[in-house]
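Bug #77: duplicate submission created two jobs. Keeping one. Sequence:
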Amino acid sequence: MSMTYVLVHGGWQGGWSYRRVARLLRKAGHEVYTPTLTGLGERSHLAHMQINLDTHITDVANTILWEDLSDIIPPWRTKLSIYSGRNVKSAAPFCGTSASK
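Kept job's structure:
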């Protein structure tokens, strides 16, 4: 069964940090997106003092929107490791669910 993954990196990294994992998932037939958050990695030229968690949540939400992704399983409902619980709980409203479930 093919699945779609959106892998979001932690602080001071970029989408490139999932390069090996993404390659393995794609080889197994899955679709993988590894967005880099504003102001980090190859998007570091966009860094400014107003970037905050809301900016990064919008980055992820826009990846989901513009790539027309659906049937996304929030990571807190899987057995996947989560880099930062704060980010996941803050992104919950964009997924139409609650991180506490």
